Amino acid sequence: MNWIVNNGDLIGQLVVAHLATAIPPIILSFFLSIPIGWFANRFQVSRGILLTVFALLYAIPSLPLFIVLPLIIGTGLRDPINVVIALTIYGIALMARSTADGLASVDPDVRQAATAVGYSARSSFWRVELPLAGPVLLAGIRVVAVSTISLTTVGAVLGIDSLGALFTDGYQRNIPSEILTGIVVTIALALAVDFLIVRIGRLLMPWSRIVGAGGGRSARRQRTAATA
Amino acid sequence: MNFLIQAFAFIFDPKHYGTANGIEVRLGQHLLISFEVLVIAALIAIPVGYLIGHTGRGRAFAIGFSGGVRALPTLGFMILIALGVGIGLGAPIVALVVLAIPSILAGAYSGFEAVDRRTVDSARAMGMNELQIVAKVEVPLGLPLLIGGLRAASLQVIATATLADYVGGGGLGRFIFAGVQTQDYPQMLAGSILVIFLAIASEILFSIIQRLVVPAGVTAGRPKDVRVKSSRSRAALG
């Protein structure tokens, strides 16, 4: 407990650094996966190819990727940009799948109805299909958010600032409470961001809660998709 | 690109073989750690997952546990254990087992859930007892999804075993951490490339196994591009 009281400033700084590295990948992967998900469902062959390629990206281990990226994009080894880009790649790898699944789960009848009432293909996508795919996207981005916040700590072994610095420092100076603090604060941060995303989801999709409480067909479908 | 050439020169340099810190030694350690972790995690997760899948109970617990582990930073968890049990292989193995369990657990129980309830009911109607249903119906039909879970776990473990050397556990991470300390970028890059190759090899191996374990004559159980839905809710609708 003493350690936390004496190092409140350090923890605060690291939380800020951690969020500055972890939040951009979460937002970027959400928006970048929308065109990918759309394109994946657009053609018969593109789905398999795109989803396989992005699944393969997820196979690249994180620490090695932090090291290889500077070579490709010409940044310094300790530049947080490497972590942001690497985590965005992982985020997209997970999110592209959720977005493609979510968009594919929209009832074809609804899509035809949208066309029938005069939506163009573009506005049908943005105003009908994407909102209806929302719950699946929400489930996907929650997974991305939590794992991104946890993965950000790995950069610490290369000297990139994040809450992971509490692990490396605590290990070198043999302070278990510092490491424990790092773990607890990281998990708390993950839960807080997860909670925030759920609130944003409720705000943007007020209908999903009502349907969810009623246990209708679409609610059951999204539950299956969210846990599969 | 110059660094990349240097990194490959590092990998193919005969000087880096045959010593106690040789590439083949570190590669072997990396594979051994990963293998041990997968075996231990499988021994814990498969029976529990089968129990959840067969009885249909405890699913919420499994999902909650997986979510909790996802938020847990493996590096911090491993270091915390290392301060308790000392440096070496102990801490990485415990941390990696915890990391590997959720994927295998999910593969085990979702494999059972993906089996059509009518298939299980017909097995029961033919006079199979619960143990026979598990062993002769649910396990073979659920195998592709279980292998899928093992595949995800293997990838995670091979990737994260890189951190093992931070607490003296050896493996390919050795080259990365030695490179970080001496500002030797080609060496770090060489270690990274080797880990990436290992991860890709694991993916290829498991994708082949996944195809081989589909029981003859079953196409419904073949891992499809679309996620498999649980048949449990559908059966209730009639």
Describe the structure.
With 228 residues, chain A is mostly helical. Chain A has a single domain, classed as MetI-like fold (Orthogonal Bundle). Helices cover 83% and strands 0% of the residues of chain A. About 6% of the residues of chain A have low confidence. Chain B contains ten helices and no strands. The termini of chain B are far apart. The radius of gyration of chain B is 21 Å and the shape is elongated. In chain B, helix 2 runs antiparallel to helix 7. Chain B has 238 residues and is mostly helical. Chain B has one domain: MetI-like (MetI-like fold), CATH 1.10.3720.10. The chains are: A mainly alpha (228), B mainly alpha (238). At the A-B interface, helix 3, helix 4, helix 7, helix 8 and helix 9 of A face helix 3, helix 4, helix 7, helix 8 and helix 9 of B.
Secondary-structure blueprint:
The complex is a heterodimer of chains A (about 230) and B (about 240).
Chain A lengths: L1 H5 L1 H35 L1 H14 L4 H12 L6 H25 L3 H9 L4 H31 L12 H9 L3 H29 L1 H9 L2 H11 L1
Chain B lengths: L1 H11 L10 H33 L3 H13 L2 H12 L4 H24 L3 H9 L4 H31 L12 H9 L3 H28 L18 H7 L1
Features:
heterodimer, A: 228 residues, mainly alpha, MetI-like fold, 11 helices, B: 238 residues, 10 helices, 74% helix, disordered C terminus
Quick overview of this protein structure:
Chain A contains 11 helices and no strands.
Q: Give the helix proportion of chain B (percent range).
A: over 70%
Query: Biggest interface, and residues per chain?
Result: A-B, 51 and 49 residues
- Number of alpha- plus pi-helical segments of chain A: 11
Domains of chain A, number: 1
- Identify the CATH class of chain A: Mainly Alpha
Look at the structure and name the CATH superfamily of chain A.
MetI-like
CATH superfamily annotation of chain B:
MetI-like
The beta-strand count of chain B equals 0
CATH class of chain B: Mainly Alpha
- The CATH topology of chain A: MetI-like fold
* CATH topology-level fold name of chain B: MetI-like fold
How far the N terminus sits from the C terminus of chain B, by CA atoms, comes to 62 Å
